[in-house]
Write the structure tokens for this entry.
Amino acid sequence: MRVIVPFDGRDPKTRLSALFDYGDRNEFARAMLQDVVSVVQDTGRDPLILSSTPLEIGDCPVSVDERSLSRAVNERLQAASSAVAVVMADLPLITDAALERLCTREGDVVLARGVGGGTNALVSRTSDFEVDYHGNSYLAHRSTAREIGAAVAEIDSYRLATDVDEPDDLAELLLHGEGHATQWLRDQGFRLASGAGRTTVRRTDVTHEPSQ
Amino acid sequence: MRVIVPFDGRDPKTRLSALFDYGDRNEFARAMLQDVVSVVQDTGRDPLILSSTPLEIGDCPVSVDERSLSRAVNERLQAASSAVAVVMADLPLITDAALERLCTREGDVVLARGVGGGTNALVSRTSDFEVDYHGNSYLAHRSTAREIGAAVAEIDSYRLATDVDEPDDLAELLLHGEGHATQWLRDQGFRLASGAGRTTVRRTDVTHEPSQ
């Protein structure tokens, strides 16, 4: 199965700006992308990075497309002759098992929600389905799929729901991640910090060279 | 299967104090508890609320136990002669399917993580396993289970991971909930609010009577 992984490297992860400078955010975003691509390849599927800028991630094919996320993805969905998955690049907790669940679930449109209302991953088996990632896309995608008469399935996955956008999300990565992005965070000195509520992160006093 | 649902009604959901007064927090916590108990009953299992204070929730049996959460749960785990589940009371997004996955997964100890490092649900099929809900309990429970030689299974569920503790969690309930707690939130005037990042909530100007 073709798995499209959209990536916007122009100014990634701005909501982490309080913790990371521009160069760090680029490194971290690429480490997360690498984690996603690795799982796609490990499960024998065909990744295609749909990138707003030229990019190299191992031997993964990259298609540079400067249009909006939704337009770029829709062109691929409508041109596809078989099932296509779209998996966001900021899901470093993704595992082989989580991707298998997504890709093997029956349905014309299979949706995996993100925390905060986004659509973190989907499979489309109909060229009639169109995405619109603007705003609270999950409920909109479910409605769209039903309107075109598609059989809709929903995946209940913490690993697919956890896109990493905000400082608190980094705790999830340190708790449950094992890939490049987690290692990058640890190398930057981030560690779990337990307090009264949910576990958060703190930065320890390791020497690190800012990348910019 | 016996499903223990611990509930502490003494001062529930303090991290929602900026939005709700004491009476509201009590009502909301009970609405979430009702949602969890309903799913346990709907799937043909036997709920037991382990409560720090006397409580009535429909026809659900309640055992009042003033000891700490961990001590109260451990006594039940160690006395059990068959599999026991422990499901937190603040999981209003739980569905029949999510509970089925938890309870039917093979393993001596089956764990479902919570956002922020907690253990939101588990099944124990060995009287050797003990819980300790203090701090970052998920990784500790996994270690404990392995140390006693138990076969450990992990459930990857957004619905079980989403305990409702903080204001942002309310958005998840309005996005994906359908039970008593979601209805209670709507009745209080809460609606989804979309902005630049994740969907949040806003309170509309409905007339409502504070319960205290």
